[in-house]
Design goal:
Blueprint: H1 9-12, E1 14-18, H2 34-39, H3 41-47, E2 51-54, E3 58-59, E4 71-75, H4 82-94, E5 98-103, H5 113-120, E6 132-133, E7 137-138, E8 144-145, E9 159-162, E10 167-170, H6 185-200, E11 206-209, H7 246-259, E12 268-274, H8 278-285, E13 294-297, H9 318-327, E14 340-341, H10 351-354, H11 363-376, E15 380-384, H12 405-417, H13 423-435, H14 475-479, H15 485-498, H16 500-503, E16 507-512, E17 519-525, E18 530-536, E19 542-543, E20 553-558, E21 569-570, E22 575-580
Parallel strand pairs: 1-2, 1-15, 2-5, 5-11, 11-12, 12-13, 14-15
Antiparallel strand pairs: 3-4, 6-10, 7-8, 9-10, 16-17, 17-18, 18-22, 19-21, 20-22
Helix pairs in contact: 11-15, 12-13
Length: 581
Amino acid sequence: MTIIHNPKWWKEATVYQIYPASFKDSNNDGWGDLAGITSKLDYVKELGVDAIWVCPFYDSPQEDMGYDIANYEKVWPRYGTNEDCFQMIEEAHKRGIKVIVDLVINHCSEEHEWFKESRSSKTNPKRDWFFWRPPKGYDEKGNPIPPNNWRSFFGGSAWRYDEKTGEFFLHVFAPGQPDFNWENEECRKAIYDSSVGYWLRHNVDGFRIDVGSMYSKVEGLPDAPITDPTVPYQKGTEFFINGPRIHEYHKEMRKYMLSQIPEGKEIMTVGEVGVGNEEDFRDYTSAKEGELNMMFNFKHTSVGESPECKYELIPFTLKDFKLALAESFLFIENTDCWSTIYLENHDQPRSVSRFGSDSPKWRAISSKMLATLIISLTGTVFIYQGQELGMSNFKNRRIEQIKCVEGTGTYAAIKRDYGEDSEKMKKFFEALALISRDHGRTPFPWSADEPSAGFSKDAKPWIDMNESFRDGINAEAELKDKNSVFFFWKKALQVRKEHKDILVYGHNFQFIDLDNDKLFMFTKDTDNKKMFAVFNFSSDNTDFSVPDNEASYTMFFGNYANSNGDSRTLQPWEGRLYLLK
């Protein structure tokens, strides 16, 4: 089996994602920083992870929390200095922790010098580094009409008019995030040297590649099909996701990366691909093709969201979740590809609120069940800061408290197109309460200390705290409790390493009773082992049947300390892993 017989450090690693603004404030200004991360590396080491992925810390006007980069080679002053970053990398390496950084190169900030030059005149040498187009025409009020009808991910048109030269520039995300024109070879080379080469020369161990499927746009940038005639702008993703030259660009960039590292060093790349089919995913992650080591799929974290509008909920079913989660890794069967396993990141709500139960009675145990599920699946495990504490969503926030540009932009677009009291707005707020990106961005709760849980000394954090730190959901409390979610995660990661043959590299994944609306059950194999996993996604005691009554089942891990592996009844939110003999 190919995936078993090609072991790599990055396949077996657990990666801990850090959101710098919200991890640890070392200088009491209300913002996390790189020195704060360095000060907490021993905590990260205690958890038992192998690498950290640090979200963007580069110089930025922060329209989208650092995903709008003004200088790839400079740390944003609020996060510290370049020297602070180099020290963080060095201290992580001393502890055996590798460092992965964000590579955000579909777009930059409008404050980047390259874009400033590009917008200065139609004849500037960097004009073609971005997508500039004249208006399609003018409306009855004389306002310029965008070149096409694409909708931005953050609401409204994907085009912004620039008065200076009388043309629009493309931004599929926020208006201050102009898309690079990857067709321009000179632009690509500059991107590689500034964003990739600089950090490889400063000893990072790899990159998480932001929106890595969007660099190649369809020639001509045609109008999107009209799927919602009630609004002027439509979903245009078919014209800029998995585009015609995307694999060419990734091969070229990987070749550049390898030219910048010493012989024998193996860097890790994980691409935010998001959507596509199995063939797309294999093209990106095939070792032979030489593009990405692995990729993130969004399908399982989007279950229950309308495909037309993220902030419009549709019925969530466990079957849909099972199928979508399996899609993350089934495509690697009998290939030289690899993938990832995750439930949380900086763009997602808290998994226990989304997929488990965040009620006081079941929050901890269902957090442990989700941890058991994650470590049981094939692929590289990613966990997000606070997930190891079982953090849940915050409660009852007004739109004025929301910081995420996606949420505020969608709110503004719905208010403009439908009205404040519309049914569309009601659905938006229902969705925002469950899936706002801000849920994962609240400051990390280091203690129960007022006013900000040890995140800052006494400065007001940049975003409001999740008040659950007062209820024992904080690092200090959990480090004192051997039965905490933190220590369960630590044990789970140890078990994953001890049984890496079946947990990391297992193959031949098979659903058991796929239609069951309470139980998630499957088997998978190695060359000489078979594992059966069963998870109860309900608050009820639930009976289950094993797939082969003649086999001998030995339970080797679960989330209940008092579980009887011989019992065929699961307690609420219980998960068990069995080896079959």
